[in-house]
Write the structure tokens for this entry.
Amino acid sequence: MDFWEWYDRNFLAAQEHNVSIYELEWLILRLSDLDKLDLRLRSQNITQKITPELLTNLDCLWQKRLRNRIPVQYLTGSVTWRDLELQVSPAVLIPRPETELIIDIVAENCQDEIYKNGIWVDLGTGSGAIAISLAQYFAQAQVHAVDCSEAALEIAKLNAHKNQQQIQFHHGNWFEPLANLNLETKLAGIVSNPPYIPSLEVLNLQPEVTHHEPHLALDGGDDGLDAIRELIAIAPDYLISSGFWIVELMSGQAEIVRSLLKDNGKYTNIQIHQDYSGIERFVCANKK
Ligand SMILES: C[S@@+](CC[C@H](N)C(=O)[O-])C[C@H]1O[C@@H](n2cnc3c(N)ncnc32)[C@H](O)[C@@H]1O
């Protein structure tokens, strides 16, 4: 099969299946040593670089993408997030571009030494994306990461190793694994992208998400806020005075979370931050 014939056919097939043509390009670039210009300029040396075996493999993966709606990141088992190369599998949520901003917000708000040299926790670490990025940014800090999925923790450990970051991983339910570590009133910061989608909505997301991503990573209970309520209630026991608290959430939840933080009475400096699309995506605060 000729590469360009295959490419043109599948370019059209992507549009018919309502799949972004950039995903086709992404898959080709991930699996070959071509660059974007090769594709855009229809470079002649492509046919030498794409062997028949590679083309067969590309076709096999791409048909799974179109027919079974499997996300391309699960098909290749990898994703780039900030400057990290991360392994992913269906045991972990594919880290999203909008979540990248959580690190920038932390960096902007936590310039003092107490944060840079402090102890940080990423709750619900999944692939380890946030914890690894925190460890990279706060090179002097101690970073812990918690998840209740053993399979996710296995991936997160691999990713920390691959990206040469030291993180202490713990298995269990939110703060529970921290209880025996003598960390009460010792944390400089708590960061979390918890499950926040209302249970009924989880069943009606894009098929790529509903059918392939772990519901444990998505389902936040009836109103989506079960995990966030728990993080608000317990975090003050673990944070130092002025310790930083931040969560990611979905459109429509930020004002509710602001009220929950206010009503708790132990937080100050409550801020809402938007993502790249202008959605109120993060709420952060400091412990009083
Ligand atoms: C939305 S995903 C976030 C993954 C990753 N931090 C990211 O941003 O890509 C939420 C994570 O929380 C974990 N999780 C769900 N319930 C939990 C619980 N009760 N205790 C600890 N982790 C939990 C899930 O396994 C999942 O990895």
